[in-house]
Backbone:
């Protein structure tokens, strides 16, 4: 292996890395976070334990990056389907706030209903509920950066006069993001595109009659 | 013990029952749902395993009733403090929807911040995320009946012309209930009375400017 030229080694690394991510996500979805081990991930990925420890310091680190990679794959797929700009770290801004929010939330519904995403995400979320340190790490590194994209989009809408200037965007986004999260996490009711469209309409226009 | 008259036996039963609830809640908060056993609950409550099996068929049943009892205690305390009507199975209706929702959500914040409630509730919620059967049972028996109180209050507000008639109350309630649930469960940000007041204002009046 050491005789191979760099490009091949790099491709091989990339392949190992992806195999490790896949193994980590599959394993945590099957046995839960507490029973997932670096040894188990290595065995399933067909690599040595040391290969994992060369790149990551713990199972939490492997899983964190595996989820970040899953998100990037989804963003890449959306880009290839022509649905988003190459710069994927922003929500669409067509000037129509309701349409943009509905578009992104519909994509989120699709992701939440994807079995590849469901089991590992549930395992991590469940652990985060009872394991404060892990929960805070995953919120800080995975969830909050996604929520900040909504903050940015709502701020742009405020600049355009489409959202009341006194509204706090970090709270406002929860009116449509949190109901979807709770339905998915706690299975309180089904999720669908129609449902998230309704959330956006209610959040933007309020429940009380307009004069 | 069999010679004692019925009232004493009833009081003793009540005492055992409460000891079993307390033991079940403490244990699940400490070791999590999977490691909680009927034997462990019995040992901690100082009763025989058969005493538990006389009243309940499984640890899930014990925990379900323990949580229902915790909710009844909170309602009873609120009633004794003069804050609610004796009929506790309805939200207050003073005719001011915003004030009534803020009142109930502030009380919910206080309950969520109560350590007696926090650890066992997290343990159950975490298990429900990954254990679909248990999750659905607890949602059906514990969470959904509470959410229906909001449905009733929003329907009354619709009858009074305070909520748009085309709004679905079962979805509308999620605009203020789910953000609080997500902040508490996933620790995405702090919870407070000011926060839930803001949620109610945003949900009722919407994010976009009124003409």
Residues:
């Amino acid at each position: 292996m050491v005789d191979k030229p760099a490009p091949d080694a790099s491709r091989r690394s990339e392949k190992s890395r992806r195999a490790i991510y896949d193994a980590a996500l599959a394993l945590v979805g099957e046995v839960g976070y507490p029973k997932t081990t670096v040894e188990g991930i290595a065995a399933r990925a067909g690599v040595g334990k040391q290969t994992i420890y060369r790149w990551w310091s713990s199972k939490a680190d492997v899983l964190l990056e595996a989820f970040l990679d899953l998100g990037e794959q989804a963003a890449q797929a959306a880009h290839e389907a022509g649905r988003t700009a190459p710069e994927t770290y922003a929500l669409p801004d067509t000037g129509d706030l309701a349409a943009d929010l509905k578009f992104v939330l519909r994509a989120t519904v699709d992701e939440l209903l994807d079995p590849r995403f469901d089991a590992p995400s549930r395992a991590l979320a469940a652990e985060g509920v009872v394991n404060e340190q892990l929960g805070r790490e995953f919120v800080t590194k995975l969830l909050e950066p996604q929520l900040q994209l909504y903050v940015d989009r709502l701020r742009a809408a405020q600049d355009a006069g489409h959202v009341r200037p006194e509204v706090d965007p970090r709270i406002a986004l929860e009116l449509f993001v949190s109901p979807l999260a709770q339905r998915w996490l706690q299975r309180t009711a089904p999720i669908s595109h129609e449902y998230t469209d309704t959330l956006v309409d209610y959040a933007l226009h309020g429940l009380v009659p307009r004069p």
